[in-house]
Amino acid sequence: MMHPLDPGPEPVGRTVTATDGVDYHVIECAGPANSTKLVAVFLHGGGPGCSSWTDFGCVAPMFAAGRRCVFVDLVQYGKSSKPVIRGPRWSWLAASMVSLFDAMELREPVDLVCNSWGGTIAIALASEHPARVRSMVITGSMPVFYGPLAPLPDGARRGRNVRDAYFGGEGPTFDKMRRLMAELEWYDASLIPDATVQRRYEQSLDREEMSLAAHSDDLRGEWQDLENHLRTIACPTLFAWGMYDAFLTPDYPLMLARMVPRGQLYIMDHASHHLQEERPADYHAMVSAFLNSNQTAVTL
After folding, report:
1. Rounded to an integer, what distance in angstroms lies between the CA atom of residue 42 and that of residue 72?
2. Could you tell me which of 75, 114, 123 has the C-alpha nearest to residue 221?
3. What share of the chain is helix, strand, coil (3-state, %, to 5)?
């Protein structure tokens, strides 16, 4: 019998060449005909082996029942292209995402549902390209280097340190992937599906992904502090956080929510960094309620 938190085999996706020339792998799930005007784009986290399906596969059918869903493998992850990022990281990635929207003819504002790395891209996108975002949900992202517990853990380089540890030494292994997920991403390690660990582990063996990991973060663009971006975001924004997030405690997203004019905060008990995988039904109910609410952007 399949594990209840196993999203199952990844559906067949397709490659979309964005107008900036980057090839993105996307999986699309369409809702009922009368709901297809509602579009949600899902942007995954930046851990080793992450992809759109490993991070959001278990909630995909729930969201697709009511809207058109686009699950994107981000640049340098999954089956998408792995070019070197030049210049300011988040602005580059946000502009490339807009190029993908153009190639897919997503002209109307979309909802962004994001985890960690993907959420920081969304913050830059909503600030620099406000006409393209209707609302967004952000979990576990770090757009600024400081916080209530400043200096942030590991000098705010925990993600880089995690990649160094995982890809270093004897290199990637199944056990190292499970340990990474247990210590940093899940509240209850006993609930982690072996199939998800296996998918993440196999993806982390990708030749290009391993080559990127062997370098410092210089291949991932220049770091940007997004404080000013946060203050200019007009769309409703929900920061959905795990009570026991191993990277940043709930004090941090409270600070972020206060910076965003329409910022809100939700804290999920018995959850860490991957709410959507740990408690998919609760995550879907909370996020759907936010996306379906009658909210409008503010005039700044």
Report:
1. 6
2. 75
3. 40, 20, 40
